Automatic annotation (TrEMBL):
This is Dynein regulation protein LC7. Coiled coil: none annotated. Pfam families: Robl_LC7. It comes from Amycolatopsis rhizosphaerae. Residues 6-95 form the Roadblock/LAMTOR2 domain.
Length: 127
């Protein structure tokens, strides 16, 4: 299960120019798996992404704008995009300043659907 999810993260990096690192985490910030360089503190990133996800979900609900889908932080040297993966998980993607954000959004949705299917499969429920 984890291996399949990691394969999806690696494939996303290969398909989208500018993606540098990514991870899957539970909504409580617990790291599940990461495709990341050793210099990335994946535990901290998981916690920060979860906090951002919680805030974004509450904001979406308070504004009456439907279900949260994604949150993007654009900094001077790159991006952090956080996507909901069902109700219990998130996918965080880091990119450099050359990240094609539109392409990332386009490629992220089918990736999220495949990852959600991996974690909802019967063998995942038995784990």
């Amino acid at each position: 299960m984890i291996h399949h999810a990691l394969t999806e993260l690696r494939a996303l990096r290969e398909r989208v120019p500018g993606v540098t690192n990514s991870l899957l985490a539970a909504v409580d910030g617990l790291l599940v798996v990461a495709d990341a360089e050793e210099t990335v503190d994946t535990e901290s990133l998981s916690a920060l992404a979860a906090a951002g996800l919680g805030l974004a979900r509450r904001t979406s609900a308070a504004l009456g704008q439907g279900v949260f889908r994604q949150n993007v932080v654009y900094s001077s040297a790159g991006y952090l995009a956080v996507y909901a993966v069902g109700d219990g998980a998130l996918m965080a993607v880091l990119g450099d300043e050359g990240l094609q954000i539109g392409r990332l959004h386009q490629e992220a949705q089918p990736t999220i659907e495949r990852i959600a299917a991996i974690f909802s499969a019967p063998e995942a429920a038995a784990s």
